[in-house]
Amino acid sequence: MSYIAKPKVSHPKSPRNELGLTERDYEGAVSTLCAGCGHDSITAALIQAVFELSIEPHMLGKMSGIGCSSKTPAYFVSQSHGFNSVHGRMPSVTTGANAANNELTYIGVSGDGDSLSIGMGQFAHVIRRNLNMCYIIENNGVYGLTKGQYSASADVGSTAKKGPANRQMPIDPVSTAIGLGATYIARGFSGDKKQLVPLIKGAIAHKGFALLDVISPCVTFNDHQGSTKSYAHTREFYHHVIEADFVPPAKEIVAAYEEGAAMPVEMHDGSKIVFRKVDKAYDPTSRESAFSYLRSSVRAGEIVTGLLYIDQEAGDMHDLSGSVKRPLAKLPYTELNPGKATLAKVMNGYR
Ligand SMILES: Cc1ncc(C[n+]2csc(CCOP(=O)(O)OP(=O)(O)O)c2C)c(N)n1
Ligand code: SF4
């Protein structure tokens, strides 16, 4: 925890993105989380990702629920929009925001307790709707903010600081999301920024629901021997199934993907995600094989990371509901309200 204010100036030679902004322009408030909390490493990866994607701060909507994890949006891009909603209800608030203005980039940051315990119903439905958002679960297996009770992602046999080991089956967000039809699914680790940044960039560029489950150890309540979400356990059982690079839509670097085992996947904005298969048997474009691979990895005790599944064909919520392209928030009142005569005509059609 640090109370030292961040300096406002940046070095004149700091790298600038396409908008002329530096990484410093994408920072937020000083974190009040415990020193060493995995969530702060994810914040650092988020700052790098949105800086490199040159997202205009006022075009970003940061959404969250309740928990230590849900404080993350306060710590990056302070000049953007943010909404800290009720516990587990971030998906519906984001759905409303996206329905009103589909031009913003939405990044939702949630916890395993926020998403998989109290918010499980909302988590399921936002996936079914294929809402165009990047949804990050900062997964530590406990309720950090309320002092370390097991969450729904705690593994069987995992221990807390005190008391008996957990005996309830965990909910794996990744397998759940595959079953529910999510169109971009990845898993990362807060201790591996190199892998995390391209996964975040890919999730933001993806049109539709992008889930990023990030193992993010809670150093205060869940970083001991016996925890399966500790730094030591994650490092030991960590398995990269795929390595991903994010290639922005610029012609001169397109050649970067033409390598032996690399496989480029084009996103809707023209950018590309380039996979290098670490495990040759893995096919991230097949829902069935991704699901069975993940189930066998769970049995083997592996923590599989990388881009695990992608479907670029499915339309997002607006495509599926046939809503107007222009954001509702920008439609003039006369178009939003067609008037009594038009309404009467519509009603007559039902008689
Ligand atoms: C309706 C409601 N029930 C319970 C709580 C208490 N509460 C606050 S945060 C939290 C759990 C957060 O855990 P998680 O989402 O895993 O985030 P972490 O703190 O571990 O990052 C709970 C149960 C609440 N704020 N509101
Ligand atoms: S209690 Fe755990 S999750 Fe919360 S800030 Fe501290 S280390 Fe992070």
UniProtKB/TrEMBL annotation:
Keywords: Oxidoreductase
Annotated Thiamine pyrophosphate enzyme TPP-binding domain residues: 66-214
GO molecular function: oxidoreductase activity, acting on the aldehyde or oxo group of donors, iron-sulfur protein as acceptor; thiamine pyrophosphate binding
GO biological process, one term: cellular respiration
InterPro entries registered for this protein in UniProt: 2-oxoacid:Fd_oxidoreductase (IPR051457), THDP-binding (IPR029061), TPP_enzyme_TPP-bd (IPR011766)
Pfam families according to UniProt: TPP_enzyme_C
Domain of life: Bacteria
CDD domains: TPP_OGFOR
Coiled-coil ranges per UniProt: none
Keyword Oxidoreductase in record: yes
PANTHER family: 2-OXOGLUTARATE OXIDOREDUCTASE SUBUNIT KORB-RELATED, BLR6744 PROTEIN
UniProt protein name: 2-oxoglutarate ferredoxin oxidoreductase subunit beta
Organism encoding this protein: Woeseia oceani
Lineage: Bacteria, Pseudomonadati, Pseudomonadota, Gammaproteobacteria, Woeseiales
